[in-house]
Amino acid sequence: MKIGTGLYGCNGHQIQHLLENHPRARLAATACIDLSSLPVSLRNDPGVRHYATLRELLADPDVRLVSLCSPLRSDQAEDAIQCMLAGKDVYAEKPCALSEEELDAIIRTARITGCRFREMAGTAFEQPYLSMRNLVRAGVIGEVVQVFAQKSYPYFEQRPQDERIDGGLSRQAGVHAVRFVEHVAMQKVSEIAVVETQLGNPVSNGGLHMAASFMMSLANGGVASAVVNYLNPQGFGRWGNEHLRIFGTSGFMEATDGGVRTRLIAGDRDLGEIDRSEPSQDYFDRYVDELIGLAAMPYEPEEELHPTRMVIRAKSHSWFE
């Protein structure tokens, strides 16, 4: 029996294409979805019901799991809580909350209801980052001392000037960078700060931050830094310009230019490109496998959500020019 899945909102990376011919999950219903965004096979499926509100979606007994890309990210924590109070498991776009109080309420509600809550947090299981994570775990570069991360995206006119819509640069893009630190380099962030700027925002009096820089202390005594921005030019040729450099006591590794180029140094050996032959692991697939009892997720919820907690904390004390 495939898991009946409801889609709410399309503000983010909604999973409609993953549900087309998925072996263990199926689209049961939608709400606040542009139907033209659905694959044709799902758009024309008479078994898929379409609602106007989340409340109607939650009343559908065929929906066991809700994928949240809420129209306003500022509403998403409460949306997630309402889903779980209705007995639905939740898979949520990042950031799933905009305050630590909201994040704590999500975790608490999941614990009370027994529903499984997960954020769309699969960065570490995509190549080349999966191989880098495995190399860290194997101790190939020794103890991790310093990490540098970068997430750069293009600016376009539809970028929200109101951070309530998508969470804003430091939270919605910054969480990827902090996941690089925690889920790939596998070092928990203990302290974090961010500085932001609106310089370069073409909208006069707009609220969009164009760039942010993070500084972090790590629980093992190491340090990390990250830059995130909406300054990736069209000529780069890729949507995201990601960099990740991990420095250890016995080596160094990097993935640059959107993960296209990699390099591994271990002691006095230049091992060249990192072996990326292991297939990437789809995070939604792992989540569905957990729901039906086939496998466990790689993190406990608090560990998975800790990067989100850290960018929320940084944002709450940010300063900008």
TrEMBL record:
InterPro entries: Gfo/Idh/MocA-like_OxRdtase_N, Gfo/Idh/MocA_oxidrdct_glycsds, GFO_IDH_MocA-like_dom, NAD(P)-bd_dom_sf. SUPFAM superfamilies: Glyceraldehyde-3-phosphate dehydrogenase-like, C-terminal domain (SSF55347), NAD(P)-binding Rossmann-fold domains (SSF51735). Keywords: Oxidoreductase. GO terms for molecular function: nucleotide binding; oxidoreductase activity. Pfam families: GFO_IDH_MocA (PF01408), GFO_IDH_MocA_C3 (PF22725). Residues 129-252 form the GFO/IDH/MocA-like oxidoreductase domain. The keyword Oxidoreductase applies. Residues 3-117 form the Gfo/Idh/MocA-like oxidoreductase N-terminal domain. It comes from the Bacteria. PANTHER family: BCDNA.GH03377. This is Uncharacterized protein.
